[in-house]
Design brief:
Blueprint lengths: L1 E5 L3 H12 L3 E5 L3 H8 L10 H10 L3 E4 L2 H6 L3 E4 L15 H13 L4 E5 L7 H12 L5 E5 L9 H6 L4 E5 L2 H10 L10 E4 L1 H32 L3 H9 L20 H14 L5 H24 L8 E5 L15 H10 L3 E5 L4 H5 L6 E2 L3 H5 L4 E4 L4 H4 L3 H7 L4 E4 L6 H6 L3 E3 L5 E3 L5 H5 L1
Parallel strand pairs: 1-2, 1-4, 2-3, 4-5, 5-6, 7-8, 9-10, 9-12, 10-11, 12-13, 13-14
Antiparallel strand pairs: 6-7, 14-15
Helix pairs in contact: 1-3, 5-6, 9-11, 9-12, 11-12, 12-13
Length: about 450
C-alpha cells in the first residue's frame, strides 16, 4: 500500500514513520522546504525517543520519503492523511481549521483518481462532513471518501503508542474507505488490538472526550493534593488507593503544577466551544479549564511562600521547562506561567532542561540557560522542580545542597522523599505531602 501524510509535525512525522515500519510506502509532505531538506538528511525536527532511528531506518529502506510537492505525493496514494496543526483559535478557543482546509483544497486539486482522505488531525465534530461537501464541490468527477482516524499518541512514548495501542478508532461509512483502513492497520491484528469502527462524528468526538476526561483526572488529583496538605494526608498514597480500583485506574493520577502540552489545553477548550454551539452545558470541563489555569498561579504563590514570602533579589534554579519529560515541547507548559511570574516578583531565573531549552528560549526571555543541571544550581537561593525528568531523580543531593546558597527545594512533581530530604537538611516543599524543614536553624532563628 501507499499513503501520503500531509504535515510533518509531531503527529504526522510519528505516524508516517510508524506506517512505514508496518511496510507501507509513505510520502510525507510539508511546505517547509528547510524541514523537508533536513529530514532527507536524517535531521529530525522534534525530540521523541526512538524517532530518529525509526525515520532513518525506513528512509534508508525506501519506504519513507519526503517532499514539498503535495500534488505528486497524493496521485499514487491509496489514502491521503491530513495531519496538520489545528491550534486554538486566538480569542475564542475554537479549533483553527485554516491549515486543514487549505490542505484539503490542495489535495482535491492534486488527485487524479478516486481516493480516501483521512483526518489524523484533531478536529471538531462535523469537520468530516464539511470535507465531504468540499471535495464534492471541487472534484465532482471523483469519488473521494472521508475517514476520521484520531491519534492517541503520548509525547515521550508515541512510537510505542502507535505500535501497541490500546485501540484504534476509525470513523468511516463508505465500504471502500473502511477496507483501506483495515488493510493499513492489519499488522495490529497480530497483537489483537481492538479496532473500533464508528460514524465519522463519533470518532471525532471520541478524541475530545478522551483528552477532556484525562485532563479531568489530572485536575481532580491536583485538588485532592491541596486537600491533603490541609488535613495531613499523603496524596501519593491516596492516588495509589484510587488507582487500585479497577474502575478508576492509576494513570493520570500524579499531582503537579497543572497540565499543559499540545493537546489537553486546546482540546478541552475546543470541546467547550463544540458544546456551546450545540447548546449543551459542560460544567465539569469548564471547571477543569478554570482550575488548571488557577493552579499554575497558585504554584507561584507556593514557591514564593517556600522562599520566605518574597523572591525579590533571589536567584531561583528551575529544573525542567517542558510540559512533561521525554519531549522538547513547551506548548502550554506550566513553566510559561510560573517563570515569568517569578521574574515579575523580582527573581532571577537560572534554568536547565535536557531537551526543551531551545524551544523555551523563544517563550521565556531573560532566563539564564545553563549547560547542565548543576550549573543551574550554582549560587541559587532555591531549587524548583517543574518537570520530572529522570535525570533530576538521580541528582547528587549532597552536591545540590553545597551549590545552593540556601537548602530550599520546591518539588512540584514529588520526585523526592520528604523524609530523605529532611535528613539531608533541606527545607523541602512538595505537592500534597506538606513541607519538611531539616535545616539547622540560623543564629537569628535560634535567638528568636
Amino acid at each position: 500500500m501507499a499513503i501520503a501524510m500531509i504535515g510533518t509535525g509531531y503527529v504526522g512525522l510519528v505516524s508516517a514513520a510508524c506506517f512505514a515500519e508496518f511496510g507501507v510506502d509513505v510520502v510525507a509532505v510539508d511546505k517547509d522546504e528547510s524541514k523537508i531538506e533536513g529530514l532527507r538528511h536524517g535531521k529530525i525536527p522534534i525530540y521523541e525517543p526512538g524517532l530518529d532511528d525509526l525515520v532513518n531506518r525506513n528512509a534508508k529502506a525506501g519506504r519513507l520519503t519526503f517532499t514539498t510537492d503535495l500534488a505528486s505525493a497524493v496521485r499514487a496514494a491509496d489514502a491521503v492523511f491530513i495531519a496538520v496543526g489545528t491550534p486554538s483559535r486566538r480569542g475564542d478557543g475554537h479549533a483553527d481549521l485554516t491549515y486543514l482546509f487549505a490542505a484539503a483544497e490542495e489535495i482535491a486539486l492534486g488527485l487524479d483518481r478516486d481516493s480516501v482522505v483521512v483526518t489524523k488531525s484533531t478536529v471538531p465534530v462535523g469537520t468530516g462532513r464539511r470535507l465531504q461537501t468540499l471535495f464534492a464541490k471541487l472534484r465532482p468527477d471523483l469519488k473521494i471518501e472521508i475517514a476520521s482516524n484520531p491519534e492517541f499518541l503520548r509525547e515521550g512514548s508515541a512510537i510505542e503508542d502507535f505500535m501497541r495501542p490500546d485501540r484504534v478508532v476509525v470513523g468511516v461509512e463508505a465500504p471502500r474507505a473502511r477496507a483501506v483502513m483495515e488493510r493499513l492497520y492489519r499488522p495490529l491484528n497480530l497483537i489483537k488490538t481492538p479496532i473500533l469502527f464508528t460514524a465519522i462524528e463519533t470518532a471525532e468526538l471520541i478524541k475530545y472526550a478522551t483528552n477532556s476526561f484525562l485532563a479531568t483526572k489530572v485536575t481532580f488529583i491536583n485538588e485532592i493534593a491541596d486537600l491533603c496538605e490541609k488535613v495531613g494526608a499523603d496524596v501519593q498514597t491516596v492516588a495509589q488507593g484510587l488507582g487500585l480500583d479497577g474502575r478508576i485506574g492509576s494513570k493520570f493520577l500524579h499531582p503537579g503544577p497543572g497540565f499543559g502540552g499540545s493537546c489537553f489545553p486546546k482540546d478541552t477548550m475546543a470541546l467547550l466551544r463544540i458544546a456551546e454551539e450545540a447548546n449543551v452545558p459542560m460544567r465539569i470541563v469548564e471547571s477543569v479549564v478554570a482550575v488548571n489555569e488557577g493552579r499554575k498561579r497558585n504554584m507561584v504563590r507556593k514557591i514564593v511562600q517556600a522562599c520566605g514570602g518574597s523572591v525579590r533579589g533571589m536567584t531561583i534554579a528551575v529544573l525542567g521547562v517542558t510540559f512533561k519529560p521525554n519531549t522538547d515541547d513547551v506548548r502550554d507548559s506550566p513553566a510559561l506561567v510560573i517563570v515569568p511570574a517569578l521574574q515579575a516578583e523580582g527573581a532571577t531565573i537560572q534554568a536547565f532542561d535536557p531537551e526543551g531549552m531551545a524551544m523555551a528560549d523563544k517563550e521565556l526571555p531573560g532566563v539564564a540557560w545553563c549547560d547542565d543541571v548543576y550549573g543551574a544550581l550554582q549560587n541559587a537561593d532555591a531549587m524548583v522542580v517543574l518537570t520530572e525528568w529522570n535525570l533530576f531523580r538521580g541528582l547528587d543531593l549532597g552536591r545540590v545542597k553545597a551549590l545552593l546558597r540556601r537548602p530550599v527545594v520546591i518539588d512540584l512533581r514529588n520526585i523526592y522523599a520528604p523524609a530523605e530530604m529532611a535528613s539531608l537538611g533541606f527545607a523541602y516543599t512538595s505537592i500534597g505531602r506538606g513541607s519538611v524543614d531539616g535545616r539547622e536553624p540560623s543564629e537569628a532563628e535560634a535567638a528568636a
